[in-house]
């Protein structure tokens, strides 16, 4: 650990980032560190044997990534695009939105995983039956206060983004659940999502 810190001090800090070493004595302390890492940007903890080597790729066995629980938000499906490979005949890439302060749906992310094959068929059918406009391979889906499909989205983090109209960008979003029980008007707001932003 000390050797790695010494080496890290010799490289450009703008091009590298050294995670903090955390110490603990009891297992329950480690669980608390996983839930609330010292750096709020962290996905969780990386546990590694002290005698393991730093190698390229994603080593398993002597290294273990223990992520904190995913963040969840209820969003409204607004766009869909066909997938690739075996999914090329189905709409499987989904853009979802939350309510802005002005009461408008603004995209906050895009996901193409997290659902079962049966749920994908259900989502594809919804897209085809509720398309309101086509832009090449992309379909806009009917969505508003009185109608829309709510998706519970799981994601690993949230950041400010000037590239998105919502001003936010989700990290590793995936569809966690289809919320047919929830009306679109009750989906999350951009202001509500901001609670997931790192402090500072």
Characteristics of this structure?
two-stranded antiparallel sheet, elongated, 4 helices, alpha+beta, 200 residues, 11 strands
Q: List the helices and strands in order.
A: HHEEEEEHEEEEEEH
- Please give the alpha-carbon distance between the first and last residues: 28 Å
Q: Per DSSP, what share of the residues sits in E-state strands of 2 or more residues? A: 25-35%
What is the overall pLDDT average? 85
What overall form do the CA principal axes indicate? elongated
Q: Low-confidence segments, ≥5 residues, pLDDT <50? A: none
Strand tally, please?
11
Structural category is: alpha+beta
Radius of gyration: 20 Å
- Range of helix content: 10-25%
Helix tally? 4
Q: Main beta sheet, described?
A: 7 strands, antiparallel
Describe this structure in words.
The protein is 16% helix and 34% strand. It is an alpha+beta fold. A hairpin with a 2-residue loop joins strand 6 and strand 7. The radius of gyration is 20 Å and the shape is elongated.
